[in-house]
């Protein structure tokens, strides 16, 4: 991995064509680059996962 910015890393990612197409379509709908869409969706997923874990611990 090579450092692009202070906290950003660049790496190759292999994925099925149909998934790439879905990401591209969603990125276009949200007026984001494909990279920004992937980062946004990952942050959303991990945020929800963290909230679920906290709720499970409190239950």
UniProtKB/TrEMBL annotation:
Entry-linked Gene3D superfamilies: Met repressor-like
Domain Arc-like DNA binding positions: 10-50
SUPFAM superfamilies: Ribbon-helix-helix (SSF47598)
InterPro entries recorded: Arc_DNA-bd_dom, Arc_rbn_hlx_hlx, Ribbon_hlx_hlx
Protein name: Arc-like DNA binding domain-containing protein
Species per Swiss-Prot/TrEMBL record: Rhizobium herbae
């Amino acid at each position: 991995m090579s450092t692009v910015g202070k906290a950003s890393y660049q790496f190759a990612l292999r994925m099925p064509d149909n998934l790439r197409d879905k990401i591209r379509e969603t990125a276009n709908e949200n007026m984001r680059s494909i990279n920004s869409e992937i980062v946004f969706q990952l942050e959303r997923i991990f945020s929800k996962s963290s909230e679920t874990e906290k709720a499970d611990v409190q239950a």
